[in-house]
């Protein structure tokens, strides 16, 4: 008779999930699913609240990327109340977005993904973790911990809170940046840029080449992609238009206020997580050999959909990447490579913003903000993917409807297909061990869910 394998919990991810693998009578994979039990309650929690309070509530959705929820919510609230932040207020928001990205990238590559690549996917689980990394490369580990701590503390010192922030406000930002703060932040960002370039070179030349066989076989299937670009097609993380790219490279580009015309939301009874899909490609079909409507978000998706990077050093890395893997690149484990290209971009973009004369301006927030009925759409690129907040308010500025599509949610269908493909690739005739099951986890881990 068939057998069911359970991987519970999936390790080294930011949250809770499990994988169920169903084997047939011959011991081969019949089906595999990723189960997510996270509460989808925030869409109801915020109904009946003043819209300006929502940006201080939804940042509790995630302790890893609260800044992105905070910023997307503020952008949606701006639209509901019909206000536009002045340039300095907008740039301070974007700077916080960049500064929040840097420790997030360091966390995933060095703490969550690296044990599989540095210690190997077959290493015993008792050492295949960040403690094992410390033992294998103590000097590097010390530097990594220092850089992540410093990046978090820089953001906290300027914005007040690095987790569950309240610095951005409807209409702009809560306070101006002082010149001495700008100089201190710039000095730190230049250090992060050097570290980002070191990490990119280290990974590209010493880490990833050892595991190209795994990269080419685990979780691989063709799909579409979603990300944000500017009018010139360059990657953007704070603002721009959404771009959906089909598996064969065809493009749909639209303002994020039109997301409902392009993205549908499907529900399955075995997951609490929604299944977004591209409406214009057909009804969602969860088949790794013939997926319909499936697209992916997050860093690999962003560098697939963009025509170029908006900063020079990141552009050089994108060119190296595309020379090796083409466009669009469908290999799931390449998320780990794409993530580091974005780390370089974030450091460069933060440097640009801190050298912008407007960043220390005093006009930071729109004035004369009054409650009103309206609808708002807020969208930023969270580390885990495109993040959409959509609210409606009544004449008193109270929220009457909220819909959210979170970065990981966009990847739900894709993660399930990656798990199924990886399981079929590594489990044959009922034979499996710890290393084989970890390879299936690697297909999930690459998405940084």
TrEMBL record:
Ni(2+) binds at residue 65. It comes from Desulfoplanes formicivorans. Fe cation binds at residue 65. The keyword Endoplasmic reticulum does not apply. Belongs to the [NiFe]/[NiFeSe] hydrogenase large subunit family. Keywords: Iron, Magnesium, Metal-binding, Nickel, Oxidoreductase. One of its GO terms (molecular function) is oxidoreductase activity. Pfam families: NiFeSe_Hases. Its cofactor is Ni(2+); Fe cation. The lineage of its organism: Bacteria, Pseudomonadati, Thermodesulfobacteriota, Desulfovibrionia, Desulfovibrionales. This is F420-nonreducing hydrogenase. Mg(2+) binds at residues 43, 62, 404. SUPFAM superfamilies: HydB/Nqo4-like. InterPro entries: Ni-dep_hyd_lsu, NiFe-Hase_large.
């Amino acid at each position: 008779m068939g057998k069911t394998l359970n991987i519970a919990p999936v390790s080294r991810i930011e949250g809770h999930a499990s994988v169920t693998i169903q084997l047939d009578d011959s011991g081969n994979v019949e089906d595999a699913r990723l189960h997510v039990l996270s509460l989808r309650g925030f869409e109801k929690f915020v109904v009946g609240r003043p819209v300006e309070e929502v940006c201080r509530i939804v940042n509790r959705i995630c302790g890893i990327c609260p800044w992105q929820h905070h910023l997307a919510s503020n952008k949606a609230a701006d639209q509901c109340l019909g206000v536009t932040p002045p340039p300095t207020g907008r740039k301070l928001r974007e700077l916080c977005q960049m500064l929040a990205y840097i420790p997030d990238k360091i966390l995933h590559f060095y703490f969550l993904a690296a044990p599989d690549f540095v210690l190997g996917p077959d290493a015993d689980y008792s050492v295949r973790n960040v403690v094992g990394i410390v033992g294998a490369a103590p000097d590097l580990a010390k530097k990594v911990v220092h850089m992540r701590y410093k990046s978090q503390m820089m953001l906290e010192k300027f914005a007040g809170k690095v987790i569950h922030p309240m610095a951005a406000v409807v209409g702009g930002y809560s306070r101006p940046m002082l010149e001495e703060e700008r100089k201190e932040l710039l000095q730190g960002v230049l250090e992060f840029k050097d570290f980002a370039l070191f990490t990119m070179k280290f990974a590209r030349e010493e880490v990833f080449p050892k595991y190209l066989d795994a990269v080419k076989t685990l979780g691989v299937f063709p799909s579409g992609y979603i990300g944000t670009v500017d009018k010139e097609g360059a990657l953007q993380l704070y603002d721009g238009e959404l771009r959906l790219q089909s598996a064969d490279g065809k493009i749909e580009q639209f303002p994020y206020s039109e997301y409902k015309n392009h993205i549908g939301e499907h529900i399955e009874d075995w997951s609490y997580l929604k299944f977004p899909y591209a409406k214009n490609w057909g009804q969602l079909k969860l088949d790794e050999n013939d997926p319909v409507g499936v697209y992916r978000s997050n860093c690999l998706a962003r560098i697939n959909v963009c025509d170029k990077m908006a900063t020079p050093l990141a552009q050089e890395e994108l060119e190296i990447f595309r020379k090796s893997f083409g466009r669009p690149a469908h290999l799931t484990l390449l998320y780990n490579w794409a993530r580091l290209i974005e780390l370089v971009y974030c450091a460069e973009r933060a440097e640009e913003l801190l050298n912008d004369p407007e960043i220390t301006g005093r006009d930071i927030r729109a004035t004369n903000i009054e409650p009103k009925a309206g609808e708002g759409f807020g969208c930023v690129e969270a580390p885990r993917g495109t993040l959409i907040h959509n609210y409606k308010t009544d004449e008193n500025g109270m929220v009457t409807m909220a819909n959210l599509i979170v970065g990981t949610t966009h990847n739900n269908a894709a993660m399930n297909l990656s798990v199924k493909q990886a399981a079929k690739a590594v489990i044959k005739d009922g034979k499996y061990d710890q290393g084989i099951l970890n390879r299936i986890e690697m297909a999930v881990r690459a998405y940084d869910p």
